[in-house]
Amino acid sequence: MTLANMGDTAIPNFSNQNAYNPLQPPKRVPLTLSPEQLERISKAETFRELSLIRQELLDTTPLRSLHRAGELAPFAIVVNLIHDSIIRQSVLLAVGELAKRGVGTPPVPFAFLQFGSGGRYEQALISDQDNGLVYLLPDHLDVASIEKVHSFFHLLGATIVQGLEEAGYPPCQGNVTCVSQKWRGSVEQWIERLDGWASHPIWENARYLLLASDARVLWGESAIFQPVLDHFRRMLAHNAFLMSRLVSNTLHYRVPLGLFGRILPEVNGRFRGAINLKYGVYLPIVNCVRHFALSNGIFCSSTLERLSLLREKGVWSKSFCDEVEKHFRPLLGLRLIAPLHWEDGQYTSNSYIKLREMSADTTVMARGAMKLAIRLQRMTAKLPSVSEG
Questions:
Q1: What is the Cα–Cα distance from 60 to 321, expressed in whole angstroms?
Q2: Nearest CA to 1 among 192, 281, 205, 190?
Q3: 325, 288, 283, 318: which is closest to 304 by C-alpha?
Q4: pLDDT value of residue 248
Q5: Could you give the percent of the chain with pLDDT greater than 90?
Q6: Shortest CA distance to 342 belongs to which of 333, 354, 358, 332?
Q7: Among 171, 243, 174, 255, which residue's Cα sits nearest to residue 209?
C-alpha cells in the first residue's frame, strides 16, 4: 500500500508541444502531458469533456512508428500521469455533482483509493476501474449521524463510478469499485474487513487481501488510510499461515513458455496466435515481487518501488534486482502495444499481443521475461511464509 500524490506534487513536463490552442490541433507527439494539458484536465466541467481529453492524450496513432518494447517503456510513466490526472478530476466532479443536487459536501474527511494496476502506478492505455473510499468518523457522532455519513459516501461512490465510466473507465468485472460496500467504508470498517478476510482466507478473500496490498491514495487525505495500513502490516507480521494462503493466489497464473524456450500462443478463439501478456508474463512477475515484499515487511504498492526496497534491505542481491527491473520496465512498454494489435477499444484485448507483429528483439525480450517469471514463481513457492513486521 502506498500513501500517494495528493495533486500538489510538481509533475515533470514531458511535452515539447506549444501551448494548447483549440483552433489549431496539436502535432501528434507520442503520449505527452504538458502544464497546459494538465490545466485543461483541471478545468474540465463534465465527465464527457474528460473522456474527450483522455482519448486525445492517449491517442495511439503516434505510437505506430515504434515497434520495440524498449522504445515504449518511457511512455508508461506519462500514461499513468494522464490516468491519475483524469481520475483525480473525476472525483472532484463527482463531489461537485452531489453538491449541485443538494446532497451536500463530504461530511467528514475522506480518501479515494486506487487498487490493481492503478494502485501500482502501472496502468496500460486502456484501463478499467479498481477503486475504493475510506473516511474518518469522529468519535462524537451518534448512530443516526453515522448512518447519514455512510449514505453520503454510498452516493458519492455511485457518482464516481458512473462518472469514471462516462470518462472512459469501465467498472472492473469483479466489482472492485467504491460503489460496492466491500470497497467503501470508515477506517474502522476497513480494519474489520481486513480481519474478516484474514480470519477466513479462502481463495476469494486472499485475492481481496492482495488487492488491498496494492492500494494507493490518489485523492483526499492520505493520513486517513494510515491506520488501515498499520493494521495490515501487524496482521501479516509472523503470520505464516496467512502468507502461505496468499502464495496459492500469487502462483495462480501459468507462464506460456514450453520446452526449449518456445512461446506458446493461444490456439483457439479470437486471440489465436497471440499471448496473454497480462496474465502470462506481467502479473506473474508483479505477484511474486509483491509476495516477497509483503513477506519482508515492505508495504508500498509500485512494483519498481518494491524492487528498490528489496534491494535496499538486502532481501535480493543488487544484481538480481537489476535483472528483474531490466525485464520489467520493457514489459510496461510492451503493454502499450496491445491496443495497436487489435484496435477495437475492448478492455479484454488490452491483455493480448500478436506474436507475428512483434519485432525480433521484442520477442527475445518477452521470452526472457517469461523465463524470469518462471524462476520467480519457483523462488516464491520455496519462500518461508513469515513477515518480520
A1: 31
A2: 190
A3: 325
A4: 85
A5: 72
A6: 354
A7: 243
